[in-house]
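Batch 3, record 17
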Amino acid sequence: MKIHFSLGKWVIFIATIILTAGISSASDLDAFKGEKGILRISGGTAHIPVMKEAAKRIMAFNSDIQITIAGGGSGAGIKQVGEGLVNIGNSGRKATETEIAKYGLSIYKWAIDGVAAVVNPQNTVKKLSVKELQDIYAGNITNWKALGGDDRSVNIYTRDKSSGTREVFWKKALGKGDISGKANFVASNGAMKSAVTNDPYALGYVSVGYIDNTVAPVTLDNVTPSLATVKTGDYKVARGLFSNTKGEACGLAKKFIEYLLSPEGQKIVGEKGFIPVK
Amino acid sequence: MGQLMRHKENIARIIFSSAAISSAVLTLSVLGFMILLSLPIMKTGMLWKILTDPWAPDHGKFGIPAMIVGTFYIASFSLLISFPISLGCSFFIQIIRPDSPGRFLKKLVQLMTAIPTVIYGFIGIFLLVPIVREMFSYGSGMSILSASLMLGILISPTMVLFFCQSFARVPKRFLNAVDALGGTSFQKLFYVILPHAWPGVLTGLVLAFGRAMGDTMIALMISGNSVILPSSILDSARTLTAHIAMIIAADFDSIEFKTIFICGGVLYMMTSCGILLARVSDRKQH
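Prediction for the assembled complex:
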């Protein structure tokens, strides 16, 4: 059979292409059209604000898709995705070689994030040297008075070892130094923030994306951790935010990660206080 | 007809006994499972080290004594706080005002058993912890004291309901005799009820202790979870349950992950001993 294209048909044909192209560039959500199913996400707690916003938009666009988001920390994210319990496991550190080999992980980096030491906004000490920070965490400096603050003990907060936030803070801010056994342990970035918000004598650390007026970032060696200083590289305590899948990402997980890397997804990343990778 | 009845009886017996057997097997297999999973650690001869070393994963030390002590402290203090309150409460419900105020209080206590522990945890973080911190001007307020106070509230319904039950078994004529002799309520409690109902009271105590020891959420949220041996009740401490909850996210192959089975085993032993004690004391009253 032979197809004849008259001029009029050509015009319609081209117009259709332009129109559909126009629509698809209007929203990066179109990929989710006609999709159905459940997408399970867990792991890194720094990722959660971005995950929630992305999930909210996707589920509002297509109500046949259900996305569940759990925390647990980077270690849990890698483990759960490797064991097939979730579709996407988030981590605030790059999975180790053994983890990648063991589970056959694919790694997708979609944001850069700083980790900042934080104090309660009421605290007058908002500047520390790296040396002072390390001394406090090691338990050598135990009173705010020694740093020019109130005569109260420094309440150190830290995360457990499976936390990606702890990993980068310990490596890049504490120089792999000791963390005092007296430190209080909290289980997520959110828990860290509420602990520091509630304790005027707290010193903790959170992902820069979590900083708002309820916690004050500590200027470290004269560099204040913020989106701008992490971006320029002046603030050194930074890491990538990753989403991991077992094998190549496929189905909804693939579309979700593509959405995170799309212009709209990257805009969410920026809005939530992280640095887009694109 | 009689044949059919007997058949029905047999079927019911089979169903119920299989339910009983499977739950017993399940409980025992948990223990077996825990032992099996802690075998790799035991084989390396690290068991003694785990039971004596400090917890410092960065230095290759994975000891859990601080958590065992923390568990014991927090559970004991919560019992200490909760016991007198529960005793008074059940005395009020069962003896002083068994009419409507007592009934109302009992309903309230029953309601308390339904509150999820995470709610207590939240109240602890936002209300209790700041109060404890400011009252003693010491530390972060996340401490053994805060966790024990909150746990005390958590376990009191268990105790109150158990105490009420055993108070109810004290023969009415004994109580009437005290009244007839002109005895005070205090005398009634200490000279008649407690000597008669103490096995039930002990059972309640032991079960509440087990509950306090087994709870994870409250300890995880408000005890601070630090890993050194606490030296005062205002220090932060970590319980075995909270420890397991924190370490479970670690890599499967890491030593710290493997040690949590030892923690589980220790916890299992501690609660089983408690339950065994409760059984023995409960039998005394019957």
